[in-house]
Amino acid sequence: MTKVKPPQNLRSGEQALDAIDARILSVLDKDARLPMSELARLVGLSAPSVAERVRRLVSDGVIRAFTVDVDSRALGYQIRAMVRIRPLPGKLHLVEKLIQDTPQFIECDKVTGDDPFLARLVVHSIEEMDDVLEALSDHAVTSTAVIKGASVKRRIPPL
Amino acid sequence: MTKVKPPQNLRSGEQALDAIDARILSVLDKDARLPMSELARLVGLSAPSVAERVRRLVSDGVIRAFTVDVDSRALGYQIRAMVRIRPLPGKLHLVEKLIQDTPQFIECDKVTGDDPFLARLVVHSIEEMDDVLEALSDHAVTSTAVIKGASVKRRIPPL
DNA sequence: GTTGAAAATAGCACGAA
DNA sequence: TTCGTGCTATTTTCAAC
């Protein structure tokens, strides 16, 4: 039996992106405020064409939003950490709500495995980190890994 | 001895953001392509004023970039996972390079603790996940937690 | 997808609070 | 300093092709 690469799994009703869409995404990923006129120049199309393509990428859900990359350190949050959170029996939903209501958790995924939550935490100081984690300690066990740096900065998936 | 809340830790030469800057960040976080004129309307200032503030936020490094939030699922990457990666002795840098050279890893933090790397993985299928993880298996031990959903979608830190 | 015109927007200089 | 006004250049949008 020959092993074959599976085809790209596209959601129903979708078209694969062509090379120009890929370039558009790549350029917008670096600077989403680029004027359509210049984006057009970069991808070798007219401005109305790229504007239409961008609109299509948005309505297709490929582009979920145009947003800003905010540097939490520039805001004084000098410590970042990834926190694995394991609620005590019966406390899953309470803990999830606590996480959501703690603004220092700027991201939290629900995952499989021993620890149902994996959250990204930003704090100004070790003391603040302790405050946040202690607030969970009656309801969950946490494992904290301080972020020392990034090997891969957020990037778009291969197109 | 009285315990006091530490002051907000600002980087040297920086000013705290005022309420209007906070609103600007909050609005741009939702739609970074908003015209300055409308952003101005939303925060109650004139267009040149907000444009100047946005420029200042960029040059101060608070806004690192304007970018797009791309939905990996809309691109066919139907499985996301967080992978903890522990290189075998002496293979730290080799493994880091392997991660960087694997485009399905769309993010990777270097963290303290038993597992030096924590990476976000997107794949089209379980088979593709196996391919990616197997490529690491000679040089590292991995622990994979499949993402079932998000409790907290990426948001900006409290201002 | 392209071109060209109209409308909206951004950028700049200057004045006011 | 920080914000507002008026002008000009650029950009976006919509039409027709």
Automatic annotation (TrEMBL), chains A, B:
The keyword DNA repair does not apply. GO terms for biological process: regulation of DNA-templated transcription; response to amino acid. SUPFAM superfamilies: Dimeric alpha+beta barrel, Winged helix' DNA-binding domain. SMART domains: HTH_ASNC (SM00344). One of its GO terms (molecular function) is sequence-specific DNA binding. The keyword Repeat does not apply. Keywords: DNA-binding, Transcription, Transcription regulation. One of its GO terms (cellular component) is cytosol. This is AsnC family transcriptional regulator. It comes from Endobacterium cereale.
